[in-house]
């Protein structure tokens, strides 16, 4: 009794065909790549942090605000705060 036929030209296991077909499908699906984009403002901020150069006027203003807050003399301008927050509340009430 012959187990293997020597006359076959391309004896391939049907399981192997399925595995190869699945691999080809996966490679087609996995060609999609993730992308990350960084805004111009974020790039400028990162460059400023790396170089260690912060605008002197901004640093002075921050220091002044810190002193006012710690001393309890900082006053919030309620009208300016409301004007800044109003667009956010308008958007949330429309949805």
TrEMBL record:
Residues 20-36 have a biased composition (Basic and acidic residues). Residues 1-36 are annotated as: Disordered. It comes from the Bacteria. InterPro entries: Anti-sigma-28_factor_FlgM_sf, FlgM, FlgM_C. Residues 34-85 form the Anti-sigma-28 factor FlgM C-terminal domain. Keywords: Bacterial flagellum biogenesis, Cell projection, Cilium, Flagellum, Repressor, Transcription, Transcription regulation. Transmembrane segments: none annotated. Belongs to the FlgM family. This is Negative regulator of flagellin synthesis. It comes from Paenibacillus tianjinensis.
